[in-house]
Amino acid sequence: MSSAAASRSDITRQIVVISAVVFMIIAAMFGAGVLGGTPVQDLQGGALSANATVLAPASSAFSIWSLIYLFMIAYTVWQALPSQRDSERQRRAGYPIALTAVLNGAWLLAAQFTTLILTVITIVLLLAALGATIRILVRTPPRTIAETLFTDVTVGLHLGWVTLATVANTTAWLTAEVAPSSWAEVADAWGIAVLVVVVLIAGATAIATGGRLAPALASAWGLLWIGVGRFSGEPESTPVAIAAWVAAAIVVLVPLVMWATGRRGELALRR
After folding, report:
1. Cis check: omega of the bond before 96, within 30 degrees of 0
2. For the segment 153-164, what is each residue's pLDDT rounded down to a tens digit?
């Protein structure tokens, strides 16, 4: 590819990322009710609210979206700089990150206008896209702290939270449309079993990413608020609350142990 063609291709990538993140932010504002949409907690007959299932985080947990969106905006501005235009790492990761932004916005639109099962399908696709994106970043380590902060931490936080959100979303669909009412009698047992699976997934993520801390922190944040929701809200479940808090501790402990044994996670810079 000629130098001019490569430059046009890189500029196109930067514009695509900007467009995708703008779409995501507009969809988020619509989903928050700012642009006339119905707030997410009131959609789908309340199935996505903080008191819909034993695995729904308390409403304060969703404040993490503000942080994720802030990081996404910062990444978008940073990747648009001329210094990042011909970055080989951005050439590999730019379009995948743009895809995660589009799927993020698509989930909000699916929740507004379609069905619960379509929200589940969309968030599973988003989780898969984030997993593939972080694998690209792991295989191409960052050279600078700025690269780590704007790219790796951004994707890591998004991945960690969406891991929890996928569990909550799927549970909401199963509870509202699939599971018989008799399942309520064993909701605590099912909730604890699912939390064990979450710990295994988060642990596998930490190992696969060389001890990255950002995904673990975002997942642990959600787990902490599941515990708060079940301890002080409805449906109340002390066993699930305790299990969620223990799970949060384990999820963070795994990458910390890896750091202590020489794996540097986000700080493993390429030499």
Report:
1. no
2. 999 999 999 999
Task: Report d(CA 156, CA 75) in Å as an integer.
Answer: 13
Alpha-carbon distance 265 to 69, whole Å? 22
Instruction: Look up the pTM and report it.
Output: 0.94
CA distance 63 to 67: 7
d(CA 49, CA 179): 18
Q: What is the pLDDT of residues 127-136, one digit of tens each?
A: 999 999 999 9
Residue 126: closest CA among 160, 81, 93? 160
> What own/partner pairs with CB < 8 Å and gap ≥ 24 does 119-126 have?
119/44, 119/48, 119/169, 119/173, 120/166, 120/169, 120/170, 120/173, 123/162, 123/165, 123/166, 123/169, 123/170, 124/166, 124/170, 126/100, 126/162, 126/166
**Cβ atoms of residues 240 and 230 within 8 Å:** yes
Rounded Cα distance, 44 and 51, in Å? 13
